[in-house]
Amino acid sequence: MTKESPQGGRLVIVGGAEDRENGKSVLRRFVELLPASQAPLFVLTAATQEPQAHWQTYSKAFGELGVEHCEPLHIEGREQANDRELADRVLESRGVYMTGGDQKRLLARLGGSLLCDAMRRAYVERGACIGGTSAGASAVSAYMLDPGPPQVHAERDEISLRAGLGFLLDVVIDQHFSERQRLGRLLGAVAHNPKLIGIGIDEDTALVVHRGHGCEVTGSGAVTLIDGRAMNSSFVRAGEREVAQLSDVGLHLLPACVSYRADGRIEPAEDEVRPMSARLHELVRQLCSASNVDESYVELG
Amino acid sequence: MTKESPQGGRLVIVGGAEDRENGKSVLRRFVELLPASQAPLFVLTAATQEPQAHWQTYSKAFGELGVEHCEPLHIEGREQANDRELADRVLESRGVYMTGGDQKRLLARLGGSLLCDAMRRAYVERGACIGGTSAGASAVSAYMLDPGPPQVHAERDEISLRAGLGFLLDVVIDQHFSERQRLGRLLGAVAHNPKLIGIGIDEDTALVVHRGHGCEVTGSGAVTLIDGRAMNSSFVRAGEREVAQLSDVGLHLLPACVSYRADGRIEPAEDEVRPMSARLHELVRQLCSASNVDESYVELG
């Protein structure tokens, strides 16, 4: 998967706190995956209240990694997000990197806009590379965690979802995953939404989705997948309320430096090449499936 | 499982912070499961540095729950733990309840002693009821977590184990489970020790093992089971070190008020009765298997 087919778009979904100053392994991989073009790479700062600071950090990092043409996308209102000329420039771009901040702010500004559609079109039709870190990672999928205050019993409590950007349909993503001990919370989201594959991404780590081809994990941490599709669940009454009883939830832990190909092969950075389990293979196929993206686009007059 | 067979011993494994003053549902269930006898119930305080305070709390609680004969077992050294007369009294007892504290202290004082053997014999041969909360819960199994300082990437780091009391052989138990977000840590223990079933018990909640008959969950929380026996794992090099890649870890979440019988039936407190999944059934059978206990006893001259 280091030789890329020109058509397939890529998602680089980063668990936050990626190295932006030294080895920059996650950002370096993102840059490697950008299609060759004279068009710009955009840094989308719509999630944050400090767009200038984020822009300075990333324009410096991407410059050091050899990106010649990098531009900020400081979207602060929906009018901007529905600017057709800007959307057209994004459609032609090599890719977009979404900074951290608050995923609700990002979606409030971008959800259902021409710009959002242009990003998905660039990914699907033009092989652009879409990156997102922290809040920008949560926003990648069609369903987005809206956790509210911390819950003690997150693994059995209902977790609210919101509509995300739709680059992946049947997925819910959590970031800063090991660092903030969010396994229980993601399990809760999957328990109540077994249609969704739960993806937990550690800091300084990315899940890369090669649309139609496979997935890889890169960086210094790991990616956790929670699969509730074969689970059994029922509700029982405990005290005042009903709680879920779950069995047969599948859990997979994917460390960095490994590629999981849609054809069932695993490619570690070392020389070992092994087949993956049937369940993991099925998950990988679904994750990178070319149809696992929202292709309905806004029609604005 | 509310009608108890006279032979089968029971383990009441409590995730800590059980209600000792008001409804006392967990302690009430423990008392219900004590075999009828004029013999005492012992409160073992060997895990704590405040044995008197724990004894006062539990003697009051058990008294209020109708236990007529309750005695402290303030074991502070191995000589006491190898006192044959005391061990014989424990063998004849209705049961032992182990307080919280530090499981290492508990094992340093009791591991491999006549008293420890007497407790296991009372459980296996005389149908006694053995309870343990917090550190007392961790100590129940043959393998005991020795977590050391908190780990960010617990789910992929090696977790040290120590030898526990051996009431369950193929098990590792963690307590205060949801409250202290320990799913990652327990997953790490199972990932590196796939022979062991990981059991995470919430506060004010007990996993009750009816030896040979089944399990139940009681209290206000839930019990999480992690099953790594069918998992695939391999090690890949990420940066400086090898990290585990796991797939097909099984996860089950069992809320309170449910019994899981060895014959495959689930008995909610409500009227619904359903079969359980094959994997969960197999886990329950193994957990409550009559042979899932260390029956090797110390020979002291």
Summarize the structure.
Two copies of one chain form a homodimer. Chain A is an alpha/beta fold and 301 residues long. The first copy, chain A, has helices at residues 25-33, 51-64, 78-81, 84-91, 103-110, 114-126, 135-138, 183-192, 278-288; strands spanning 10-14, 41-44, 70-73, 95-98, 129-133, 141-146, 160-163, 168-174, 197-201, 205-210, 214-219, 222-227, 232-238, 241-255, 258-261, 265-268, 274-275.
Explain what you see.
2 copies of one chain form a homodimer. Chain A is of the alpha/beta class and 301 residues long. Chain A has helices at residues 25-33, 51-64, 78-81, 84-91, 103-110, 114-126, 135-138, 183-192, 278-288, and strands at residues 10-14, 41-44, 70-73, 95-98, 129-133, 141-146, 160-163, 168-174, 197-201, 205-210, 214-219, 222-227, 232-238, 241-255, 258-261, 265-268, 274-275. Chain A is built from 9 helices and 17 strands. In chain A, strand 8 (168-174), helix 8 (183-192) and strand 9 (197-201) form a beta-alpha-beta unit. In chain A, helix 4 packs parallel to helix 6 (114-126). The termini of chain A are far apart.
The ordered H/E elements of chain A are EHEHEHHEHHEHEEEHEEEEEEEEEH
Question: Could you tell me how far the N terminus lies from the C terminus of chain A, measured between alpha carbons in angstroms?
Answer: 41 Å
Structural category of chain A is alpha/beta
| Percentage of residues assigned to helices of chain A | 25-40%
| Largest β sheet strand count, sense and barrel closure of chain A | 10 strands, mixed
> Average pLDDT value of chain A?
90
Q: What is the C-alpha radius of gyration of chain A, as a whole number of Å?
A: 19 Å
Largest protein-protein interface:
A-B, 49 and 49 residues
Q: Strand sequence of the main sheet of chain A, in spatial order? A: 3-2-4-5-1-10-11-15-16-17
Task: Give the strand tally of chain A.
Answer: 17
Assembly type of the shown chains?
homodimer
